[in-house]
Specification:
single chain, globular, two-stranded antiparallel ribbon, mainly alpha, 3 helices
């Protein structure tokens, strides 16, 4: 689908969709999106600068979790 291509989600920290996906694969615990967001944030540092990508990260996480 539309989300399969790799694109930058967090410009401040240069975090791409693939980085988020990889971070999720590294996090074995299948939890709610907010918890997953925190682990993705710890791994990639996305959304720690301006925070503008917060919703895009959450959308990406939902997308990835649904396709698992």
């Amino acid at each position: 689908g539309l989300f399969m291509e790799n694109y930058t989600i967090c410009n401040c920290k240069k975090v791409t969709y693939a980085d988020v996906e990889k971070a999720l694969h590294d996090s074995v615990r299948m939890e709610d999106v907010e918890t997953l967001f925190k682990s993705v944030q710890e791994i990639t540092h996305c959304s720690t600068s301006c925070g503008g990508c917060h919703q895009k990260i959450l959308d990406a996480i939902s997308e990835i979790m649904m396709s698992k």
